[in-house]
Structures are given as structure tokens and as C-alpha cells.
Amino acid sequence: MATEQPQGRRQQTFRWIEEQLPVEWTLTVPAVVLLLAATVLPLLALVWISLTDLNLVTSVNMNFIGLENYRSNIFQSERARSALLTTGIFIVSAVSIQLVLGFLLALLLWGRPQRRRIFLPILLMPMFVTWIAVGLMFRFMFQSGIGIVPHLLSQIGINIAWLSNPTYALAAIIIADIWEWTSFMTIMLLAGLEGLPEAPHEAARTDGAGRIEMFFDVTLPMMYPVIGVAVFVRLIEASKVFPKVLAMTEGGPGSSTETISYIIYEIGFRDFGIATAASQAVTVTLMLLALLYVVYRSGGMEDVF
Amino acid sequence: MSSDSPLINSKKTEWIADAILVIASALTVFPFLWIVWTALKPEELAFRPGATDFTPTLESFQLMFGRDPALLYLGNTFVVAGATTIIALVLGGGAAYAMARFDIGGDRLKVAFLFPIMVPPIAFSLSMFLAFDRIGILNSRITIVLAYMTFAIPFAVWFLTSFFEEFPEELEEAAMVDGDTRIEALLYTVIPNLKPAFFATGILIFIYSWNNFVFPFLLTTEGDLRTMPVLVSTYVTSSDLLVSHMSAAIIITVAPVLILAYFLSKYLVAGISAESGID
């Protein structure tokens, strides 16, 4: 135990360090320095690369070309715009369905500790599966000829070639994401529900409010801050969608399921068009940081912390 | 009373609620069962979803540990995730404590610590790949751990700050009156009392690092340094389809995490109950 530690050794170890700097800086600086090295340095390098014509296939030289990449590879690129659109569709559908289903499950577990003990550990399992495995599991389940889903559907006369149809392929990726992350919404919203004051519900009940009225008039408005945080966190994670696309469709059929992170991977790491990929990565990063800024400005950060 | 739920308050609604929960659980569990079922099939039957007439075999698991270097990869994954967790808890914990107790940076510093989470990992990997390649440290565990810091430190700071803020300041002040310095009070008084919080945060960071795919996939080019998620991805490519091997690899990768997650979810459930005062 800590209290049995010999006083002398404790002094030797830490006193000298503490005398060198104000203690709050001693404690903060290492984390800040490491984080700067791991994040700000790579991002500055990324911005610099995005202003050049670096391409590991066509040339060894690196020339400064200003904002040319941004002009030709984002605003004028059909592929980049389509990837942004696909990412948008993915985020909106996946997160909104997760919110509705997750909220429903949270409401079903609200105030029911025995049910929570039984169902919550089961429902939370998918969240802990490595993302690439989720993608591969669902690819394997949805693939025509070998997958269980088309196999079962064909028994009742429905024949869908999930992964080779542009719409269904994106739907399959969204289904995989819903399987994986719905319980994140459930746990966040359940924590919020259990923290709600009881008085407003009591009052509504004495006023004779029905369950549906009670939910929309009393419960839901009080849940807005928690819903905001849960959606914000999911939104950020969903915007990064990449391993699932790689595992399930590799962007196909054609380029119909390419998301923005996926094209950055393909252009940068497969075709070595580093500068093009860098300009796209900088653009997405700026879009997400703008979102963070808006949330911060609107005071939403108080709920996040 | 069987239930304190404001919405589910009759036998009929309770019945419907339980039915929905059972269906949701079944849909949640099905992919896991399907993967286990597939892993037990011989490879030549694994492609046939309707095949039920087979002798279960552990061949895929045997090959995984015999022919494929699953043990090496498991070791890599463990070392990288463990190192990330320890570094993040130590450095992030220090920063979190300083931000909870001193007036440094305020909200802006907190948001600054959060910003790396907003950046897609692919954006970091692109310039990391080039830089590490040029310096000649591309294939090393250190670079993977450094890349993991982009999420591990923000997580540690974010979670631990609120735990430190809730911790009663009088306890460490008492220790300091007894002659401890600030850091000694933190190490011998505060942290021992916050073990469960550190434990839960640590599990979360460990799981997130264990599961990470993008960084080890993009920042290693040699097999010897790869992690389990990368190994899993090698069984199903456009030219190769080894589904029962893939299933076995998924089980080996996911099982340790689910065991850890079980402890974490107990903690999360307990946390919710403590907050609500029910239970």
C-alpha cells in the first residue's frame, strides 16, 4: 500500500522534478508534446504536401503548385464529389436509424434493472468487435452464393444480389454499421434517461397524461442535450468510415460505395497520388473541424464534458 | 413493484417490451453464432450456407496457430495496445489532473485535447507513412504506438478529467499538509482512490487500440509487425476467400476483447445504476 512506502525514497524520486517547473506544467507538458508530435506535425506535413504535385509513381520531384490540387481534385472531381455524397448518405442514414433504434431499446430498459442486467451485456457486444471484422463478417453473410442472408431470403422468394447492386451494397454497409453501433446510442441515452429527475414524470402522470404524450412532452425535451452528445460522437466516428467499405465492397460495384476516407486510401496508398489524397484529407479534416467549432460556439461543449 | 419504468407499466406493455428486447438480442448475437458455426466447418463446406451435414472440426484454429503466425500477431497486438494504454494513462492522467485542479487553458485546452478525434485516421496516416518511410522507422511498433496516441491521449484526458473533478480535494490537501508534494499526493492519495476509474478508462483505451485496423494496416509493410485485425483482413481479398480461417481469426481476435468488455459493461451498468439510485 502507498502509505507504507518509505518516505525517503518518495522524496528522492519526485521532489527534484517538482522543483524545476510549476507542477501544473510538469503534468501537462508531456501529454501536450506527445500529442503535438502525433497530430499537429503530421497535419502540417499534410497541408504542405497538398500544395505540391507529389506523386510517387509519375515523378520523384516535388513542386509547389499552390491550391491547384484543391481546384482539380475536389471541386472539379466527379469521384471526390460522389464520395462526399456517399459519405453523407451513409452518415445520415446510419446515425438516424441508430438513434431511433437505440432510443427505443433505451426506453425499454429504462427503470428496469433486471432486464438491464440480462440484455445490456448482450446488446453491447458488437461495439467491441474490431471494425475490419465487422465488415468481413457482414460481407461473408451478404455475399451472393455463399452468404446466409441471400440464402435465407431466397427461401422466401426474394433474390437480391446485395453486394453487386449499388443501392443494396451501400444498404448492406449501413446495416453492418447499425448492428455495430446501435447499442452505443442505447447506453448513452439510457444513462441520460436514468439521470432524469422523477418529478416532471410524476406530475404528468397525476395530470393523466398517456404514455405517448408523456414521452413527447416530458421525456424527449429533457433528453435533447444527451441526444446531442450521442449524435455528435456517432457523427464523427461515422464520417471516418473506411475499414467496413474496404472489407465489404472495396468501393464497388463501380465506385458506388466509395466514401471519402476510402478514396483517400485508394488514391494515396494504392495509386500513390499522395498530393491529391492529401488535399482531399485536408478538406475533410477542415469540414470536421468546422463542425467541432460550430458545436463549441453554440455551447454544446458543456454537454460533451 | 416489478418495474419503475415511467413508460412500461402494464403486463401487456411489459410483454411487448421483452419481446422486442429478445428479438434485438437475437439479431445482435446471430452474426457471432454464424461465425463460430463457420469456423467449425471444414474449409470446403464453409461456402455453403445451407450445409449442416458436417463433422465439426478445429482444423481452422489449428492452422491458425500452426501454419499462420497467430501467436506472433496476438503478441504484437497485445504489446502495442498495452504500451498505448500505459503511456496514455500516465501522460493523459497527469494532464487531466492538472486541468481539473489548476486554472490552465480552461475549456480551450480541453477542446484542443479533443480535436485529434475529429481528424480521420487516414489523414494522419498519409503524412505519417511518408515521414516514417523517409526517416526509416516505417516498420516498428513505436510508430504504431505513436499513431495510437492520436486517440488514446484524448480519450484518457477526456474521461479522467471528470473523475478528478469529482474527487474531493480535501483528501489530497490533507496529504499535502502531512508533507507530501502535489505529485506525491496525486500518486499515493488520489490515484489509489480512483482505481476503478483508471481501470475502466484503461480497458476502453486497450480495446480501442487492440481493435484498430487503419494504422497497423497502413503503417506496416512487413508481416512480422502486423496485428490481429490486419491478419483477419488477409483471408478475404478479391482473389482469396478462406472463410472458415477468417472466422477462426475473428474469434481469436474478438474473444479477449469480449472478456474485457464484459468487465467494462458491468462497470458501465453499475455506473448507470449508481447515477440513478435504482438497483
CATH topology group of one domain in chain B: MetI-like fold
Q: Helix- and strand-based class of chain A? A: mainly alpha
What is the H-and-E element order of chain A? HHHHHHHHHHHHHH
Mean pLDDT of chain A: 86
> Would you report the number of β strands of chain A?
0
> How would you describe the shape of chain A?
globular
CATH architecture label of one domain in chain B: Orthogonal Bundle
Structural class of chain B: mainly alpha
CATH superfamily of one domain in chain B: MetI-like
CATH level 1 class label of chain A: Mainly Alpha
Second rung of CATH, namely the architecture of chain A: Orthogonal Bundle
**What is the end-to-end distance of chain A?**
32 Å
**Which two chains touch over the largest interface?**
A-B, 111 and 119 residues
Number of helices of chain B: 12
The first-level CATH class of one domain in chain B is given as Mainly Alpha
Number of helices of chain A: 14
User: Unreliable stretches of chain A, pLDDT < 50, 5 or more residues?
Assistant: 1-5
Fraction of residues of chain A in helices?
over 70%
Largest sheet of chain A, in brief, is: none
Describe the structure.
Residues 1-5 of chain A have low confidence and may be disordered. Helices cover 74% and strands 0% of the residues of chain A. Chain A is globular. With 305 residues, chain A is mainly alpha-helical. Chain A has helices spanning 7-20, 23-50, 68-75, 78-109, 113-124, 131-142, 148-155, 166-194, 199-206, 211-239, 243-248, 260-270, 274-297, 301-304. Chain A starts with 6 loop residues before the first helix and ends with a helix. In chain A, helix 4 (78-109) packs parallel to helix 8. Chain B is an all-alpha fold. Chain B has a domain at 75-254: MetI-like (MetI-like fold, Orthogonal Bundle), CATH 1.10.3720.10. Chain B is globular, with a radius of gyration of 23 Å. The two termini of chain B are 12 Å apart. The relative contact order of chain B is 0.13. At the A-B interface, helix 1, helix 2, helix 4, helix 5 and helix 6 of A face helix 1, helix 3, helix 4, helix 5 and helix 6 of B.
